[in-house]
Task: inverse folding
């Protein structure tokens, strides 16, 4: 009944509000595929249709006797209990109650084998990371265990005895145990118990079985289609997109019938290898590693085909687009194989965190590029709890630019949460979120930032991407993208790249030594990840491409990853290695012609690029002090770029990643085209004034950036004039400062009385707590006398330090909004001779008021039982004073839904108009 109530609520909200409003505004809607952000769960998913894991129970006994007893039914071994040990209070929220899964255990086999010596002595021998390699937790990167197992620690395949048929219907076993020490292993599978999270009342249930298309069909029908059909009842459908968020559903390493699928697709019976899933070494470490590789690979294939692939199929069948963050920091997939099934690829990134998601932005943009998708989305600027209410447009501009240079061209701002109450800042997404909503202090000043994002994203959705290198990461599973700095072989700066997968690798054509995708994109070089092991079908593809003219950088493999058709594939691997690299021992030459193409071994990417005379697509040289800039917040060179092009136009988006002004000489691989500078902040378009054509045919353009500045450099027409090697520089003739006190007033809950400031200060240092902790808008007014306002003169108002956004009024006319440094604007058209009234309305941050409220008594009831998987306390209920629209009974000024303990010790952040403020009178002059 509860999940029926949840469904009615969601459908009513969608049908009555969301769809109608989207239709009215001419918008379309995307919907999550189920309750919570992760991942695909709900109360309609029964245990038999949920995620499964291998479980086991074992008995060690002495031989030479008869065993006649019951065998213990296996319990969870690495899922729930592991998480409960780590953090039981929080992690129980990831799971359904254990008794919910009672009765859903199924046997796979009862096996007996001589007990390895270490186990009998209480010191079991295991391969490195065996639980990850058996699919109980995702590996960040696969690394083969190179140690040698002593013979007495190895389970001999020939000595494994199958006792399955001896187990009776009551779970009892009778067996004459041979001499020696023996282990009986009862292996089966059961639901992991993992639930969707965080889910509203009545919306929590089991995560769907990702390896079963039939189970996914049920989830789709009971969740997605209920919302789609409800929307259709009110007329034209506004829902166009269904989304799977980041994969946070934990491990799954079995599904019903997996053993039969394994035989059919991999080619051998895995029953005798089941002890390896329980941590044992079978035959040798190498043999065990190879079996587990085959095992993980099939798990990944089934998840990609029956979960992501089936979602895409169902979406298309119902006229929808399928979007996903196609990676799983907690899953079992080869994330590169997932690329094939996603129409609208996306990633996520968090405000104030520099490298949390590694290369996921490149995975998302590569998916779009190689599969001809126009849009690349991202859950953008997710607010971390330790920076709550500290996000504002200036603070995240450079970070957003960095992600745009990696190919993201549509931000999904995290978050705008529905809050029906009047008290500010109101409800949010628990402890998370950057609060992009009308109740944030700086929201009224955000238009300029949104216009900036709109211009950037519009430009970055035009044409096609330009990348020189295609990077093949291999087909290990699980596998995910790495940051550029971690790739091996390394990709030199100045050359952009895309990931590809096996599907694309096999579809590549070669034309004039270029690798050509089915969508027409071309690449000059194929780089293969440094892989110790490769399957022969990959080498056959590489050989075909090279012979037809491809330039490839790849080192020879030394082994096979799996056991399938081992003898035949071992011989084929040796033959192909010899044919491609000239030697089967991995000691072939570093550079070799093969057919019409070339193969380079080792770290030879730069050598290959030089041999084909491919200069960097982008280079730059700092002008001035080379030591003035330290490391940028985001990884890279401090200047980041992305290149897109149409038939006649080349577009480069260039970003200064430092919070300091910077000038560079930028070099673009474009010749005989006029460089134009398109300003995404203002929309202004001008010819570059300082440029030159280099002897190598490229174009050098001098660029001057403000702090965290950016520009589109566009080459779309033939050169029309010579470079002037000059620029317009504002030359000050007179500077006027405000020499009278400022009248200061406050607009917001808990505003102090009007004040006079003899000088501008950071109000977070004020000795009046109402001022010190104030959050809202601070209004500063002053007058300034100007003797002469010449028609041709300029008047530049410089506010100095502003925390954090401002709107400027001159003589009661708005002169504009300022949201980033430098807080400077031209006020010439508003200035007059004589007295001028200047009003500056500054919005600061909510965090200061919330810090101040920590010193006052609580006005709400809190609970740790929030349903969130984050630690901490949230509202146990909405207080009556909020529902009734009254002020807080304890004098608090901010109503929030989470208790951030760190704010009790935090000092308020800089706030207000800090200055110095002056008006500069002068004019632009042309200088060399």
Result:
């Amino acid at each position: 009944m509860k999940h029926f109530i949840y469904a009615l609520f969601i459908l009513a909200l969608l049908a009555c509000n969301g769809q109608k409003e989207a239709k009215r505004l001419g918008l379309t809607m995307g919907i999550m595929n189920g309750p919570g952000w992760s991942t695909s769960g709900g109360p309609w998913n029964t245990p038999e249709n949920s995620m499964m894991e291998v479980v086991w129970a074992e008995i060690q006994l002495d031989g030479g006797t008869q065993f006649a007893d019951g065998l213990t039914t296996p319990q969870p071994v690495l899922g729930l209990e592991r998480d409960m040990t780590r953090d039981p209070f929080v992690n129980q929220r990831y799971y359904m109650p254990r008794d919910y899964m009672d009765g859903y255990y199924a046997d796979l086999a009862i096996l007996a084998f001589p007990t390895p010596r270490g186990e009998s002595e209480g010191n079991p021998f295991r391969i490195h990371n065996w639980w990850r390699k058996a699919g109980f937790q995702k590996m960040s990167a696969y690394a083969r265990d190179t140690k040698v197992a002593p013979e007495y620690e190895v389970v001999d395949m020939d000595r494994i005895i199958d006792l399955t048929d001896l187990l009776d219907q009551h779970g009892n076993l009778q067996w004459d145990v041979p001499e020696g020490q023996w282990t009986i292993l009862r292996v089966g599978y059961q639901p992991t118990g993992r639930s969707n999270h965080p889910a509203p009342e009545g919306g929590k249930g089991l995560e769907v079985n990702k390896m079963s298309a039939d189970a996914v069909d049920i989830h789709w029908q009971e969740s997605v289609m209920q919302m789609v059909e409800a929307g259709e009842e009110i007329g034209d459908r506004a829902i166009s997109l269904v989304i799977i968020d980041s994969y946070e559903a934990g491990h799954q390493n079995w599904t019903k019938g997996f053993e039969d699928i394994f035989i059919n697709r991999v080619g051998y019976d895995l029953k005798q290898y089941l002890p390896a899933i329980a941590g044992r070494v079978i035959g040798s470490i190498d043999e065990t590693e190879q079996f587990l590789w085959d095992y993980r690979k099939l798990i990944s294939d089934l998840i990609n085909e029956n979960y992501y692939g089936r979602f895409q199929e169902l979406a298309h069948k119902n006229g929808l687009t399928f979007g996903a963050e196609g990676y799983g920091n907690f899953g079992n997939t080869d994330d590169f194989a997932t690329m094939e099934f996603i129409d609208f690829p996306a990633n996520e990134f968090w405000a104030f965190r520099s490298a949390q998601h590694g290369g996921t932005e490149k995975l998302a943009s590569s998916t779009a590029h190689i599969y001809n998708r126009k849009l690349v989305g991202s859950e953008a600027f997710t607010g971390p709890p330790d920076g709550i209410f500290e996000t504002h447009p200036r603070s995240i501009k450079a970070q957003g630019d960095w992600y745009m240079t990696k190919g993201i061209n549509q931000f999904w701002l995290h978050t705008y949460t529905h809050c029906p109450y009047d008290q500010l800042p109101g409800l949010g997404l628990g402890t998370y979120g950057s609060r992009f909503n009308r109740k944030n202090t700086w929201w009224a000043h955000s238009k300029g930032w949104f216009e900036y994002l709109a211009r950037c994203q519009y430009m970055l959705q035009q044409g096609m991407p330009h990348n020189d290198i295609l990077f093949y990461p291999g087909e290990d599973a699980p596998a995910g993208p790495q940051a550029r700095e971690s790739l091996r072989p390394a990709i030199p700066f100045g050359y952009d790249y895309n990931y590809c997968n096996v599907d694309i690798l096999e579809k590549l054509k070669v034309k004039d030594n270029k690798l050509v995708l089915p969508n027409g994109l071309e690449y000059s070089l194929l780089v293969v990840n440094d892989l110790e092991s490769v399957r022969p079908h990959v080498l056959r593809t590489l050989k075909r491409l090279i012979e037809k003219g491809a330039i490839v950088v790849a080192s020879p493999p030394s082994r096979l990853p799996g056991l399938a058709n081992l003898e035949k594939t071992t011989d084929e691997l040796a033959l192909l290695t010899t044919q491609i690299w000239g030697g089967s021992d991995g000691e072939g030459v570093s550079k070799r012609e093969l057919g019409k193409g070339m193969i380079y071994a080792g770290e030879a990417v730069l050598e290959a690029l030089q041999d084909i005379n491919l200069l960097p697509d982008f280079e730059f040289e700092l002008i001035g002090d080379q030591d003035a800039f330290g490391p940028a917040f985001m990884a890279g060179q401090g200047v980041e770029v992305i290149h897109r092009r149409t038939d006649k136009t080349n577009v480069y988006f260039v970003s200064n990643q430092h919070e300091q002004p910077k000038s560079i000489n930028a070099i673009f691989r474009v010749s005989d085209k006029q460089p134009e500078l398109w300003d995404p902040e203002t929309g202004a378009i001008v010819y570059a004034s300082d440029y030159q054509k280099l002897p190598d045919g490229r174009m050098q353009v001098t660029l001057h950036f403000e702090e965290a500045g950016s520009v589109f450099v566009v080459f779309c027409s033939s050169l029309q004039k010579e470079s002037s090697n000059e620029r317009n520089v504002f030359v000050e003739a007179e500077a006027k400062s405000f020499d009278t006190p400022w009248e200061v007033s406050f607009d917001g809950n808990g505003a102090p009385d009007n004040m006079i400031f003899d000088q501008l200060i950071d109000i977070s240092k004020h000795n009046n707590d109402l001022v010190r902790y104030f959050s809202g808008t601070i209004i500063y007014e002053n007058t300034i006398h100007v003797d002469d306002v010449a028609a041709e003169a300029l008047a530049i108002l410089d506010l100095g330090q502003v925390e954090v956004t401002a709107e400027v009024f001159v003589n009661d006319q708005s002169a504009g909004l300022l949201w980033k440094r430098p807080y400077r604007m031209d006020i010439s058209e508003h200035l007059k001779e004589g007295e001028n009234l200047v009003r500056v309305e500054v919005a600061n941050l909510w965090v200061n008021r919330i810090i101040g409220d920590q010193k006052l008594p609580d006005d709400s009831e809190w609970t740790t039982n929030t349903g969130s998987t984050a630690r901490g306390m949230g509202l146990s209920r909405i207080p009556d004073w909020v529902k009734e629209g009254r002020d807080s009974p304890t004098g608090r000024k901010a109503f929030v839904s989470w208790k951030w303990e760190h704010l009790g010790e935090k000092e308020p952040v800089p706030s207000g108009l800090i200055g110095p403020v002056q008006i500069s009178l002068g004019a632009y002059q042309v200088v060399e």
